[in-house]
Specification:
Residues 14-268 form the Glycoside hydrolase family 65 N-terminal domain. Residues 699-758 form the Glycoside hydrolase family 65 C-terminal domain. GO terms for molecular function: carbohydrate binding; glycosyltransferase activity; hydrolase activity, hydrolyzing O-glycosyl compounds. Belongs to the glycosyl hydrolase 65 family. It comes from Flavobacterium defluvii. By secondary structure, the chain is an alpha+beta fold. It has a domain at 12-65 and 77-308: Beta-galactosidase, Chain A, domain 5 (Distorted Sandwich). Helix content is 33%, strand content 24%. The chain contains 19 helices and 32 strands. The strands form 8 sheets. Strands 1, 9, 10, 11, 12, 14, 15, 16, 17 and 20 form a 10-stranded antiparallel β-sheet that branches. The two termini are 50 Å apart.
Amino acid sequence: MNQDYIKPDNWSIIEEGFDAERVKSSESLFSIGNGAMGQRANFEETYSAETFQGSYIAGIYYPDKTKVGWWKNGYPKYFAKVLNAPNWIGIDIEINEENLDLNTCTEVRNFRRELNMKEGWYNRSFEAVLKNGTEIAVNVRRFLSLDLDEAGIIKYDITPLNKDAKIVYKPYVDAGVTNEDANWEEKFWEPLEVKKGTNEAFVTAQTFKTHFKVTTFMHNTILANGENINVSPSTIDSTIDKVQYTYGTIIAKGQTSSIQKIGGYTVSLNHENTLAGAEKVIRSAVNLGYDALLQSQIDAWAKIWEMSDITIEGDVKAQQGIRFNIFQLNQTYSGKDSRLNIGPKGFTGEKYGGSTYWDTEAYCIPFYMATKDQQVARNLLTYRYNQLDKAIENAKDNLGFKNGAALYPMVTMNGEECHNEWEITHEEIHRNGAIAFAIYNYNRYTGDYSYIPEKGLEVLIGIARFWHQRASFSKDKNQYVILGVTGPNEYENNINNNFYTNYIAKWCIDFAADQINKVALEYPADHKRVLEKVSLSANEIQEWKKVADNMYFPVSEELGIYLQQDGFLDKELVPVKDLDKSQRPINQKWSWDRVLRSPYIKQADVLQGFYFFEDHFSKEELKRNFEFYESFTVHESSLSPCVHSIQAAALDKMDMAYTFYLRTSRLDLDDYNKEVEEGCHITSMAGTWMSIVEGFGGMRVKNDQLHFSPKIPKEWKGYTFKINFRNQILKVSVNHDETTFTVDGDQDLTIIVNGNPVIASKFVQIN
């Protein structure tokens, strides 16, 4: 059974009732972020039971020394980790001389959490009976400001219910934190300076090795019934890495005592003097005040939702799922800074190190292209261009390649490879193809070709050189083969001729050669500059083309399908439907040896190729390959269900498309893979968006025009979405009777709907 405690709601994630067994899962699901920082939904007050503490700052990482049982040549020296940042949310609380701790209270009732996605805040409320008999009602609201993105705000209200209460607040900032996933149980933060003010405090620390400097700050205000009572701390305790203030108050039964805490981080990535920067942030936040900060948060999220919202009528769980996905994507990455990227867990956990994977290019860029200004997607491409030298170094030093061949890292923070599993690090090389495809996809969607001559061509050349050298000629087959790889299906390692890898390798070479010719004709100065810089000759391009034109692809003529790899049909082909449910998920129940020998697929490689290159294949080919591989796919990759949903919709398998949509949209809310306590699957959430827009909406870009083939699940009454296509905002509304297309503006847009041209105009309602 999947978890089923999140209450269905159109705009909020809601939990009712306190259950210690759910705490870590809820810490993930109720996480908040603003692109610059984020945090799990940890309690502000003491909690002595099991919890996963986590606050994170974008771009701040630590090179944790790789830990493996057997070192192999070429292993990365470290695994980059997003750091558990210093804690600014902490507020120890004493009520009538007893510490507030939900784990030790004699009763907790009316416990409720709400993550309000429409307005961008997280709220927790409960009533508790302490061991000393004091009964209290608590309401806590927290948000991370989108406009003032170095600041977060907490408003913590306590109302004694059965007697007057002495309430002692002990807010603190603490840099003495550790990561749950530290390889060697090292501390990652070196304390530098502590500064104390009247109601504010600062702890400055820097990371060991990488020397990122961070000032963590707080400013406290004590209120009674909403009025500032101008209380100063009675005591101030500090160590080299922690400052804690104590405020004592007395509040009558039925009255409300509150602490408002402003906190956050200023980092050396953005400030020469992080302490001065923190003082400035506090002044800005205090001058605005809590109410204005909250209103600006509501306004900022309203602007985001105006463009990125998808509405679904008649299916609350489906509606809640897509909004949760869109909300988390916008919390994780704002697009302001090309030095940043999108980690698979975002700001919700430490798994995968918070680093950049191929997920960004394969899954996330379409969402950001369509719901933001195109500069946001261009920044994601620029991120990879800025790391091209490191990709060339990676191929040279770790794999022995030459002549500027580039292998982009499977996992990175700064361009260096930092993944520590051989079968992934050096075999899952298909990520190079996703990076090239993103350049093509960006140009196809935005119409902005300028990126290719300016930056993209160098990337494409480095990638083409890699594929040329990585392929080898088989005399037996009289074709080029690619040996010893892992495809997107990580349940097969070190296999030969993975269809997806071979296909995208050929495509990369062909695309690079085509762009070299196009740039030569249309941007001759850039062509000359780039070819001189990389020392590329016409003869070398011809050598590439020999590989591309003679690439081998494994097929089964009998089944009429492409083979996932040469030996796939040698496996015992027992379909998933015949697999005992008690054995799922297999990655948690089986030995790795058994997984690798099985036919079960984490995500289908062949279908990933059909997704990227849909126009290269017939509908009948898609049908045969989809039906074959779907029967063996266990979808234990978060990136799998969305592609299957899109392809099921294209094949008019609407029940299946809807089932996969629910799985991808509620993967974390319902904890399909029984791992949400580790964090949410942020990058796959972009696939949820695609499953509606590209799946049910049938959106494609062909020959510089938008194409649609709209469909609607029977469970829905209707749905709508907006896209920004080449600076024109198009709204698509689908119900069971009709589809309408309206343009925001006075300029018409010609689109193709079910093969027929349609002119979308500004909608004018006539009463």
